[in-house]
Amino acid sequence: MKALVTGATGFIGGELVRRLEAPRVLSRDPARARAALPGAEPFPWDAEGGPPPAEAFEGVEAVLHLAGDPVAEGRWNPEKKARIRDSRVKGTRHLVEALRALPRRPRVLVAASAVGFYGDRGDEVLAEDAAPGADFLASVCRDWEEMARGAEALGVRTVMLRIGVVLGRGGALRRMLLPFRLGLGGPLGDGRQWMPWIHVEDVVGLLLHAAREEGMRGPVNAAAPGACTNREFTRALGRVLRRPAILPAPRFGLRLAFGEFADILFASTRAVPRAALAAGYSFRHPEVEGALRASV
Fold first, then answer.
1. Do residues 139 and 89 lie in contact, with contact meaning Cβ atoms separated by under 8 Å?
2. Residue 246 lies in a domain
3. Which domain holds residue 25?
4. 181-200 per-position pLDDT tens digit
5. pLDDT tens, 72-103?
6. 185 with 247: CB under 8 angstroms?
7. What CATH number is associated with residue 71?
8. 270 located within any domain
9. Is residue 75 part of a domain?
10. DSSP 29-96
């Protein structure tokens, strides 16, 4: 499968590129991408500036679209929120514009989205047919997916992966480990909120499965079947590290540190991978403790 990847220098993108043979990548900084991703062929693209070059798509069967400004890095202020939205919504619109202009289009577009699509929903079980939430991140995900759906009208099979908290040797877990290793870790607030997690190996596995499985289209929850609350997650991490995990993190302190993003940390999203399981995907890390042991 000849693939073109966006967001290839990120945590998920780097793992994905290692699973592909001679992939092409779109990058704002092709020299950096070439150095970071041996074996990949980089092409320049400013996602917010316009469509990528047509030559990047020559012979490409699948486009795997991961590009977007990191949600969890930096305090949310109006400028940060604009970058989060524009990098996803404008970037995806420009990508689909490039597909529209091609004389021969790829077979499939697999585009990232996020479980933030659902917002804060308490104990409600959220399969892919659930309605979107009403907060900022939900609105971004809704518009992001709407841009990706434009590829369907062009005859390109389109899948949107609603990705949860990604575990692995990097990403969100890397920022959690130090306080837990010092014995200072604990749940966020009362820890009762559902935390949709997935190991990076399964994110990559689902990206590739979706690209190859002709029956997959539309939204797919990229969240492990072993759903857990934040309290269960922190207890599992404490067991893995052999450290106590009992000191709760207060909401007001995180709000001071991260601004509006703190509300996302406390949101309860019980997303279940109904579409992935129905499409025959077998999770390598279905339970949280095993996933954490493979990540530290």
1. no
2. no
3. 3-230+258-293
4. 999 899 999 999 999 999 99
5. 888 889 999 999 999 999 999 999 999 999 99
6. yes
7. 3.40.50.720
8. yes
9. yes
10. -HHHHHHHSTT-EEEE--TTTSPPPGGGGTT--EEEE-----TTSS-B-HHHHHHHHHHHHHHHHHHH
